Amino acid sequence: MVREFLSRGANYTGALVEREMLGELRKGIEKEQYQPYNEALDFVRENQPFDPSDPDPRFANDLHATIADALRLKDYKHLEFYTAVGSNLDQFHGVDAFIEWHTDPENNPKAVQRVTLDITINPQKGESYKADVLIYVPSEGLDPKEDREEFAELVNNTAEEILEKLSHQSKT
């Protein structure tokens, strides 16, 4: 996964991590000007490179499946993973991806809980992020084949944080 780029001598950047672990919007659809938050969310939803209920990047897919299993969802389509990498939501609002859980799709299709994500290799990011959950990836990268335990731990820890945020939202 990410290590493939390192072995070829590429610079390991935050943008590379975002694309490799979360995916990125389809090319050529970027907006040049600022979009308000809700417009940026809509734009991201409309321009996904994959089915949000079955995301392509390995990390996003494993994270989605882990959360769906923990929520005991019968239909994974009620949980959607959206990449925002390269979008105005990323650039102006600090959100690299988000997850939406449709809590009552049959009776209330508008009943949705959302958790936003920011991924980084910068251990100094601290509290300077805007998303609900910060995902820290070691600067040397994580390969799901070579670093199985660390990769699984990152998926599980991130899923736990997201589930905690979803649980908190349902209480408010």
UniProtKB/TrEMBL annotation:
Q: What is this protein called?
A: Uncharacterized protein
Report the source organism: Candidatus Kerfeldbacteria bacterium CG08_land_8_20_14_0_20_40_16
